[in-house]
Write a structure and sequence with these properties.
Elements lengths: L1 H5 L3 H27 L5 E13 L2 E4 L2 E4 L1 H6 L5 E8 L2 H9 L3 H29 L23 H8 L7 E2 L5 E2 L3 E8 L1
Length: about 190
């Protein structure tokens, strides 16, 4: 042990870290450019006028969301926006075919970031479409947050016509392709 401490050299550590980081960056660039061709992002959204909010319920278009968490976040909203974003079936097929654990992990991680990027873009498009109305918006919230049950995935499926973008809702309430996100936000 003492010998290792005596031979410790900060320059060697820096060199190791830089060469490791450079290798990782080069790997990431290769993976990134290869993976982008599998992404076929698609999005749908729909706007509803909120009839009223009486916690924990939000009433709109003869529908009700019963969630203290969502009703609190949207309490001043006049509208509720539903949206779904997916990277598509091509991504799902590619990711499902991976055998190498490290490649699968990196692909999964990159896919999660990529779908989040497209969710951000969809949110911005919704906001731009409402710019003339001088709307302000709440944060976006997805089923599974707080007491916003995954059961509401069924409402998303009915309202947004998932089949138009080839998204399926499984019996266990998971979405296929896996890189698919549903969310709501309020407008006021």
């Amino acid at each position: 042990m003492k010998k290792i401490i005596e031979n410790y050299n900060i320059d060697n550590v820096r060199y190791f870290k830089l060469s490791y980081l450079e290798k990782e960056i080069n790997n990431f660039k290769k993976v990134y450019s290869r993976l982008l061709k599998y992404a076929e992002p698609k999005a749908l959204w729909k706007k509803y006028k909120i009839d009223y909010i009486k916690r924990p319920e939000i009433h709109f278009d003869n529908k009700v969301i019963n969630s203290s968490y969502i009703s609190k976040k949207l309490e001043n909203s006049k509208y509720i926006y539903f949206f779904v974003v997916t990277l598509g079936k091509k991504w799902e097929k590619m990711e499902s075919s991976l055998k190498d654990d490290i490649e699968l992990y990196n692909t999964h991680k990159f896919g999660a970031e990529l779908v989040e990027y497209f969710v951000d873009l969809t949110e911005e498009r919704i906001k731009l479409s409402e710019k003339r109305n001088h709307m302000r918006f709440t944060i976006r919230l997805s089923p599974g947050y707080g007491d916003f049950s995954l059961e509401y995935q069924k409402m998303f499926k009915e309202e947004l016509k998932f089949e138009e973008i080839e998204v399926k809702l499984m019996d266990n309430l998971l979405l296929i392709p896996r890189k698919t996100v549903t969310a709501v936000m309020g407008g006021y």
